[in-house]
Each structure stands twice: as structure tokens, then as C-alpha cells.
Amino acid sequence: MNHTPSDAEQTSTAASAAPSVPEPRLRVDGLTVRFGGLTALDDVSFEVGRGEVVALIGPNGAGKTTVFNAISGLVRRAAGDMRIDGAPAPARPTGLVGRRVARTLQGLGLFDSMSVLENVLVPLEARSGAGGRGRRGDAAEQASGCLGRLGIAHLAAVPVAALPYPERKRVALARALVTDPDLLLLDEPAGGLGEEDIDTLAEVVREVAASGCSVLLVEHHVDFVMGVADRIVVLDFGRVIACGTPDEVRADPRVEEAYLGIEPAA
Amino acid sequence: MDRLLFLLATGLARGAIFALFALALVLIWRAARVVNFAQGAMAVVAVYVAFAVTGLTGSYWIGLASALVAGGLMGLVVERGVMRFASHASPLSGVIIAIGVVMVLQSALGIAFGSNTRPMEAPFSESPIVIGGVPVLSPYDLFVLILAVGLMGVLALLFTRTSLGLQLRASAFAPEVSRLLGVRVTRMVTAGWVLASAVGALAALLLVPTELGLNPHSADMLFVSAFTVAVVGGLDSPPGALIGGLAVGVLISLVTGYLGATVAPIAVLVLLVAVLLVRPGGLFATTEARTA
Amino acid sequence: MSADTNARPAASATPPAGIEAATPSPRTSGPLTTSIRAPRERRRRSTPRLLVTALVLTLVAIGATFLLDPYRNYQFALIAATFCATAGLTLLIGLTGQLSLGHAALMAAGGYGYALTANALTDAGVDGVPRFVVSLAAAAAASALLGLLLGLAAARLKGPYLSGVTLVLVIALPAFTSVFSGVFRGDQGVQIAYDGVPEVLRRIIAVEQWQAWVAILVAAVFVTWLAALRNGRAGLRMRAVRDDETAARLQGVRAGRVKVLAFTASSVTAGAGGAVLCFVTQSVSPGAYTLAFSLLLLVAVVIGGLGSLLGAFLGSIVIVMLPWLIQTATGALDLSADAAQRLTGNLPVLVFGVLLIVVTAAWPGGIRATLPKRLFSKRMPRAAAAPAAGPDAAVAADSDLEPRTDSAAEPIPTTTER
């Protein structure tokens, strides 16, 4: 029974002996989306690990929101694979909550006839029999707690239509956070916010990521992105042209070329 | 079997009328993104005018012309006077206002003329021409077919070959851009309504002599059938309206012939539900219509 | 405008919303503890509060029947029956935007369900309260089934398509009764046995009053059920779907199911209304459930204010009383029989048509919006722990539905104005 294992055998034994790598929270593989004759996304691939903050940046029209829409099941993909925690991404938007994915919309998508609290309650009360009788009180508690964490607990009874834009954004964020998601998709969270609000936002994102939730965000505000992201994926015309840490991306000439918003000397 | 040919031929003639009326609905949908639930009532008003004019002058043809004019006028009045107040934010308000118009028009007709049904004479004989022992088609149905198809041809030419048609299509498809290019969009929308209402009035005028007669509710079933046609064909598809109209006309004719007139509304309902279950946007619809 | 709930701690001198939010303080505990309590209390309190309100209103209504003469009680019964249908319809249109033009057909389903069951039970020797209750249940089931089918078809349809299908349904109703005339007896309809006043009460009240009582009780039960639905989870989901369907779906709300539920619920109450009408008139026929009647239901909910239960009630009063008023007025004028008939038949419809247009175009909130401010002073009462006075509670619970529910509402809802 004496035999020296061949190279191939050695490698395979080594591979099987290695500890298994946990599935990334989100894996996008070769995603291609077409609208009629237009190819909005072309072979887009990237990963988001657990507790990681990844930013999707790129010029307008690069396809960033389309990536979100594909993951959310709002647009059909022509090719490619999307996996959340190893399992295929839900085919329909209504399946997101069950997979512990939450998403904000560029247009906020708040329910204007409702109060702040009611808006935040919707994902908790979305499914019938989602918790039975006792849970109704719990849902309200959970919602209020979330509002408190974002500093808008005192606005619980205010109709969202009456709120100024930064507060509306907080409500949208609260609504996304209230279900305690494992993957958070933020669509232009910093848009339209002043400096202080952006600092708060960055703090919230970091806190959320530190608690194990992965964050994928689409953003134009470069400083914010540089400060909060662990990795950056750069899209241009539907293709990934760069992927790496903020410093790597900043130094990448292809990115400079495509996206003039980045100051070369940073 | 010999009935079959007659029923088919009559069905085609009826279908041509439905297609015309459906075309009116399609025109307004494309122009204003609203289903004109008041189309039937507006058309009936025009038919009453024609009835009165024919009674005064003794000429069917002058009556027909006056129906066209009255129909166009109705379109102008309703669009400029009422429909433009409908909120663009919600499609519901347009429908509700149209329902209000229906109620006003039908009740006004009832007050002015009474609700009893007045028989209306057709300009041509309604008994079928018999060829080789087989009843084929009545002269009136032939007239209807020729007139309806002819009018549809004229409309097609208008839309595809004339400058007016181009402006109408542009305004319906892309109002903002058209404005920038100098098209008087509001005027085009009104023109669309006028044209559609005239067409609808003619369709109703052609239909009434074949029914029991004229009363304020004469066009209810016509609207229902034409709506079904528009749905089957797709609300924004004129060729769909044509094919759908002929199909629905034949269907109703066959059902009426073999199962009786009372069953006809059920057949329409079944067809409507069946089509909408399978293709919520209509059989010929493009993706645009799907968001109707 | 900032809310003034007693959940806000007086001590913290909370500055207006904008300023506070700018200073990051994600972990304040003061407002947190009190805000937790308010919503939970609201939840626990709102169902009992609703029931109490319903009870009070019912007793008031029953009390009122003693003050009315028999004909008025008859009209009261009609109003209550109509209210069952309009309550469901106003929520259907106001909360889920599904414009049904055929609700009369759903009432007819209830009416026929009631009549056929009542006759079957009479043949089996059952009468009195058991017969009524079982027949009412059958009516609700029949209309629920029809509503479910229609709702399933409708959930996939948008705007005008849905309205068109319901329109065709109500127009096709006489055809159904004719084709299946073995069961439905065609145009003459089905008659039921007369349900007199029970022994116990026979010396106290007349039959019209008794019928009014029955109508009021049925309306109370079904409308309260609707109100509970609206105040709870289902109502929240419906409003979410109405406000932004895509966003709602992203939050996990199954929009299609919500719409079907709304349609079915409104069908159930419509069926109950039809059953009551049958009970009061002892007959059901296609002639009683025409397109014109369906449109009257629409008129009632539009002028009352879409989405408002109180509005539906007021609208029901209008559509029952106005024709009677016009009839009385034209009777007082000296007109030929023909002219009088033309007027009484058509003038109400003319007035209603004008009202429909005017209200939709110019006066989005309906009657509801012109009611005294007092009713709306408890701003967002559903989130506030502050109790509203008895009858106002149900009304106040309506208030947050107001601005978005009308078809002609501004794109930016003005929840702040009343």
C-alpha cells in the first residue's frame, strides 16, 4: 500500500482537506439584460461577501439600476446567474423579503397616503399569517425600534407626504432595514442629501455591515462611496470595467477615462 | 347549411360596423389614452339628429351627412367641454366622467324624445338576395359592408399618407416631442375626438335599422361589442380592430342564428373574459398596450 | 406639519422634524419607549373601539326607526341595503383602484342566492330566523363566488379593461336569467314567501319597521366587517398596492392577491345587500339590477367620497332619496302624463350624471371633504393614542384614506388639508 500520491491526487486531497469557503452573500455571474435591441447589461459578474459593502458606480445609463432590477426580479435576464446565499435569486419581487433581501428605490417608492410608521410596517405585515395574533404587537415594536435607530421615532405618526426629502429617505431606509435583512440593496442613498445627512448615512451603512448584513449600493456621490465601500465595481455601457478596493479603482486609468467624475489625484 | 352562408355574410356586415365603432375607440385611446365609455351615447345622439333630419327632409343621405356632422360636434363638445377636466394622474377619473356623460346624454334624450323605441327605416332592402336558392346577403348589408370598409380605407389613407394623419399619429405617440416639433398637440387631440365620434356616429347609424329601432339605449350593446372588439384586437391597433370586429361580428351572428338572440351578450362576455385571461393586453397588442 | 401625538415627550422640547433629524442621534431612548406603546395600544384598541362605535350607530339607527313613518322606514331599509353594496364598492375603488361598473350583478347574485335558498327552505318547512340566516349566508356565498371569479380575472387587468368586463357582465345579466330560466325564471324573476314581523314584536312594530331593523342589522354586521378589514393588515396592504404597486411588491406584498381579496370582500357585502333587497321586496328579477342601477352605485360612492364608509352611506341616502324627491316634485307640477313620466324616469339620472362629472372633475373629495373640521381634528388618530369621540371614531379612522382615494386627486396627496 505504499505509493507516493501523484501530483494530481495530492492537489485534489489538498483541496478536499481545505476548509469550505462560505458562499458569498450575492454572486452575479455573466448577467446579461436586453431591452429590445439594446443590451443594457453585458456579462456582468461580481460578488458581495458577508458583511461586505460593495458599491456599483458608473456614468449615467451604465446599467447600475438595471442590475438591481435584475436581482429584484423586476426585469428578465437574457443570460447569467444570480445567487443569494448560494440559492438562485427569487424570480419575483415579492420573494425578496423571504430571502432576507431588502431594496430601496431611486424614487423612494414610499406610500404617500400612510404615516411613517405604517410605511415601515408594510414589509412586516405583507404576508397573511406572517406571524399570527401575537405578532401584531411585535411588528409595531420592531417598526418603532427601527425608526428609533434612524432618529425618526418622533415622526412615527406623521404622513410621509408632509416630510421633507431627507426625512423621506430615512423612512425608505427604515423600511428596508426593518425586516433585518442579510442583503441590502441601496439605490442612490446619498442622492439629494446634505453633508450631515450623508455622514449619518455612512455611519448607518457601516453599522449595518458590521452586524453581518451585506450592502450593495448604487451611487454617484464619489466621496461617500470611497469612504464607505470595501470594494467598488465600475460599470460602463453595461460592462464591468474595473473591480477592486477604492484605492485600486481610483488609480485605474480605465475608470478615469470612462467616468470623469473621479479626481485623478486622490 | 344554407343559413350558414347568410349568417356568415350578415356577420361580416355586422362585424364591419363593430370594427368601425372599435376603430373610433382605438382612435380616442391612441389620441388621449382614455377608453371613451361615452362613445355609444354620443353616437346615439347623432343618430337621433339624423332621424329628425330625415324626418324633415325625407332623404336618408342628408340624414347620414347630418349624423356625421352631429357626431363630430359631439366629439368636440365632449372633449373640449368635459373630458379635458379629467385628471391625468389617474385613469379612473376619465372613465368616471365618461360614465357621467353617458348618464347625462341618455337621460336628456329620454326627456326630449321619450324612451320608446322608434323604428328606423333602412335605405335599402333588408331581405336577403337569393342566389341559387341560398340566401346570401341583403342589399342593406352589402351597402353597410361597402361603406364601412370604404371608410376604413379612407381613414387608413388619411393616417398614413396625409400630413394631418402624421400629426395625429405623432401627437398620440409622443405628445411632448411633437409639441417641440411644432405640432399643435391639443388641437390634434381634439381633432382625433371629432374624427372618432363621427366614425362612431356613422357606425351606430348603420346599425340601428337592423335592430328593433332607435331609443336612448340603442348603442349600449354596440359599445359592449365594440369594446370587446377593441380588447380582442388590442386597444391601440387599427388592423386589430378590423380583424377583431369581423371576428366578433361573425361570432355574434352565428350565436344569434343558432342559439338565439338572448345568448349573444353571454357569448360576448365569454369571449372577452377568455381573451383577457390569456392575453390581458388583447390579442394584437404591443407591449405598450399592456400597460393600459 | 408635525404630528401632535401624546407619544411625543413634552420634556425633550422636540424641535420641528427637519432640525432634529439633521443631528445624528440614532439611539434616543425617550421617544423610543413612548412610541412603542402608542402603536401597540392603537392596535389593541381599534377593534374594540370599532365594535363599540358600530354598536352605538346601530342602536341609534334602530332608535330612529321609531321616529319614521312606514314609507320612510321602507326607504331606510333600501338605504341600508344599498349601503352594504356601496360600502364595499367605495373601498374597492378607493383602496385598490378597481373600478367595477357591474356591482349590481353581484347584488343580483346575492338576491338570487337568497331567493332560491329561501324557497328551498320554505319547501322544507323551515321559516323565520333560521331561514333568513341560512339564506343570507347562501347569498353571501353566491356573490363571493362570482366576485372571486371576477376578481381573479380582474386582478390581471388594468383600468379600462376591468371596467369594461364588469360592464359587460351587468349587461349580460338578463341573458343569464333567460338562458337558465329553469332556475332563474327569466325576466319575471323569483318570488319568495312573505316574511312577516315575528310574533314577539307584532304588537309593537309594523312590518316596514321590522324590515328596516333587519336591513340595519345586516348592514351593521357586514360594514363593520369591512371596516375591520380596512383597519387591519389587509387594509394596509391594499393602500400599499394602491400607492405604489412596484414598491409594495418589493416589500413582499402580493398585489394580485390583495386585489382579489378586495374584490371578493366587496362582492360579499354587495350580495348581502341584494339579499336584503330581496327580503324587503319579496322578489328578485333582472329588471331590478340593471346597468343603470350599477351606475347609481358608482354615483353614490363618488359623490360620497371614494374610500370613505361614511361617504358611501351619505351617497346611498342620496341615490335612494333624490329620485323620490324628484318624483314628488314633478307630481306637484301640472304636467301631462307622458311628460311627467319622461321627467321622473330621466331627471334623476340627468342630475346624477352631472353630479358625477362635477364631483370627479372639480371636487375630488366628495361630500365627505366638506364635513366639519371637527371630525378630522384628531390628526392621524390611528397612530395617536388620543381617543376620538364615539361616532367620530369610525369617521376619523376614514380620514387618512381621504386624499389619495379619489380618482381626481392631485399627484402629490395633501393629507394635511381637509
Question: What does this molecule look like?
Answer:
By secondary structure, chain A is of the alpha/beta class. Chain A has two domains: 23-100 and 181-266, Rossmann fold (3-Layer(aba) Sandwich), CATH 3.40.50.300; 115-180, no CATH class. Chain A has nine helices and ten strands. Chain A has a six-stranded mixed sheet, with helices on both faces. In chain A, strands 2-1-4-5 form a four-stranded antiparallel sheet, with helices on one face. Mean pLDDT of chain A is 83; it is low at 130-134. By secondary structure, chain B is mainly alpha-helical. Chain B has one domain. Chain B has a two-stranded antiparallel sheet. In chain B, helix 1 (2-32) packs parallel to helix 5 (139-161) and helix 5 (139-161) crosses helix 6. The longest helix of chain B has 31 residues, at 2-32. Chain C is an all-alpha fold and 418 residues long. Chain C has a single domain, classed as ABC transporter involved in vitamin B12 uptake, BtuC, CATH 1.10.3470. Chain C has helices at 17-22, 30-65, 70-96, 103-123, 128-155, 159-179, 181-184, 207-231, 233-243, 245-250, 255-281, 291-304, 309-332, 337-362, 390-399, 402-405; strands at 190-191, 283-284. In chain C, helix 4 (103-123) packs antiparallel against helix 5 (128-155). Chain C is globular and about 60 Å long. Chains A and C meet through helix 3, helix 4, helix 5 and helix 6 of A and helix 1, helix 2, helix 9, helix 10 and helix 16 of C. Chain A: Keywords: ATP-binding, Nucleotide-binding, Transport. Chain A: One of its GO terms (molecular function) is ATP hydrolysis activity.
Q: Could you name the CATH topology of the largest domain in chain A?
A: Rossmann fold
The count of domains of chain C is 1
Q: What count of domains describes the coordinates of chain A? A: 2
CATH superfamily of the largest domain in chain A: P-loop containing nucleotide triphosphate hydrolases
Strand order of the largest sheet of chain C: 1-2
Distance between the termini of chain C: 13 Å
- Please tally the helical runs of chain A, counting DSSP H or I stretches of 4 or more residues: 9
What overall form of chain A do the CA principal axes indicate? globular
- The unreliable regions of chain C are 1-45, 373-418
- Here the CATH topology of chain C equals ABC transporter involved in vitamin B12 uptake, BtuC
Strand order of the largest sheet of chain A: 6-7-8-3-9-10
Radius of gyration of chain C: 23 Å
Helix content, binned percent of chain C: 55-70%
Largest interface: A-C, 62 and 62 residues
Class from secondary-structure proportions of chain C:
mainly alpha
Order of helices and strands of chain A: HEEEHEEEHHHEHEHEEHH
Mean pLDDT across residues of chain C:
77
GO molecular function, one term (chain B): transmembrane transporter activity
Family (chain B): Belongs to the binding-protein-dependent transport system permease family. LivHM subfamily.
Membrane topology (chain B): Multi-pass membrane protein
Keywords (chain B): Amino-acid transport, Cell membrane, Membrane, Transmembrane, Transmembrane helix, Transport
